[in-house]
Amino acid sequence: MTRRLLCLLTLALAAAVFLAAPAAHAQEPRPDRRAESLASTPGQRVDEIMADYRGDTPGGVVAVMRTGEIVFARGYGLANVEYGIPNTPTTPYHMASVSKQFTAFAIAMLADEGRLSLDDDVRAHIPELADFGETITLRHLLTHTSGLRDQWTLWAMSGGRMDDVIRQEDLLGLILLQRALNFPPGSEFLYSNTGYTLLAEVVERVTGEDFGAWMRANVFEPLGMRSTQIYDDHQRIVPGRAYSYREGDDGLAKAVLSYANAGATSLFTTAHDLARWLRNFRTGEVGGAGVMARLQERGVLTTGDTLGYALGIGVGDYRGLRRIQHGGADAGYRTLLAYYPDIDAGVIVLANTASFNTGEVATEVAEAFFGGEMAAAEPQSADMADTADATGVPVAREVLERWTPDATELAAYAGRYYSPELETAYTIAMVDGALVARHRRHGDIPLTPTERDTFRARRWFLDQVTFERDRAGAVTGMRGSAGRVRDLRFERQE
């Protein structure tokens, strides 16, 4: 494997760590205002960074902590545009995948108490999960190396929409229908929200308590996180919460989120409470030093390669400082939590608009406050810069010969295809001389031929469709793939 390819794979892994959910769309880069900065203090610099999020637009909250204390906290823009309610450091936010480290912390605490082991077979706790022929451990779930297909892609592929009310029981039912993995457990890293939904279920079965109630009694209350909860009921009122927005065709629009699930997402908290959580990385006040250390143990593949991902958090270095961080994105919420243990400092960035780039803002804020304690920045090499698309994931520049089937060839694929793992069907049909995949909740999805029997669908939940044939050449089924779901089979019924 060439050095260039290794670099590309490393970049791809780094990008995957922080893409939490299908709602995480590509974001336009913000203009670099460093050269024109007039700030004389770190706080003024943050105001410059957040200058686009003032007035009557949604925005966010930025907070910085040092040695356990908040040294900067400020809200920008509106938490609720309809009623003109501003963002403040005490505004409760949906945290998206930043929630995962809290679920991982619960598992690490239970392991420390001897009530489970990270190397337990998940089926020892959830026996109704399918037997895939290989052991999937709790550690595999924690480090995204289980091979389990991602629940959000499965949800949408089955006909669900992300603005539906999505309950825990809905997701568990879908997970339990699965009969194949993306890859053998431990052999790859592929971000999967499914593992964290299962981990929340493990906490409930081991403790005999509701996940949210156990977290409140054993984590949130002991840490003084009084504005924090597991939001597993979409009808529950949260006073002062930030609402979710995106840019629509006609300007600002709501980005509706009605989650009633937990484990992978749905933590509600504030910047002030998150500072208390970050402080625990140093003090171990709750859980102890052993649990906090275990949370930072990086995953290891069966190949022996060590990941940059630990238990619900990414672990690495930035400009000479060790950095622990994780981001999140659901609907219009964008979140990022970063901790620099070498200097006992952290950055909290919360936003309620989908165009917000939390990674960029969090890095600029850290440089404003801690730049004097960082090593000199290393320039990005040109060959890395020009091989990334808008999401930061390297793009393979391989050119394949385009397959151009005629109408007769396309007609051979027409029919109804059913998946027992999704309990849903797609109809493949000819429309105006082209092939479409038709679903009652998603409408017509155009299929573009790429190579024989393979088509691009270009939906986040259905990117590629590959048809299967029997020995006689008749089309018998198709397989759908999209990022975190590979080769899910649909049987041809007619």
Number of DSSP-assigned strands? 23
Approximately what portion of the residues adopt beta-strand conformation? 25-35%
Contiguous helical run count: 13
The N- and C-terminal alpha carbons lie at a distance of 45 Å
Coarse morphology = globular
What kind of sheet is the major sheet? 8 strands, antiparallel, barrel
Structural class assignment: alpha+beta
Q: Kindly state the percentage of residues in helix.
A: 25-40%
Strand order of the largest sheet: 16-17-18-19-20-21-22-23
Low-pLDDT parts are 1-31, 380-389, 391-397
Radius of gyration from the CA trace? 23 Å
Mean pLDDT comes to 91
Question: Could you outline the blueprint of secondary structure elements for this entry?
Answer:
Elements: H1 3-18, H2 42-49, E1 60-66, E2 69-76, E3 78-80, E4 85-86, E5 93-94, H3 100-112, H4 138-142, H5 151-157, E6 165-167, H6 168-177, H7 193-207, H8 211-223, E7 229-230, E8 245-248, E9 251-254, E10 258-260, E11 267-269, H9 271-283, H10 289-295, E12 314-318, E13 321-330, E14 333-340, E15 345-351, H11 358-370, H12 382-385, H13 407-411, E16 415-419, E17 424-431, E18 434-439, E19 443-451, E20 454-459, E21 462-469, E22 475-482, E23 485-492
Helix pairs in contact: 2-11, 3-7, 3-10
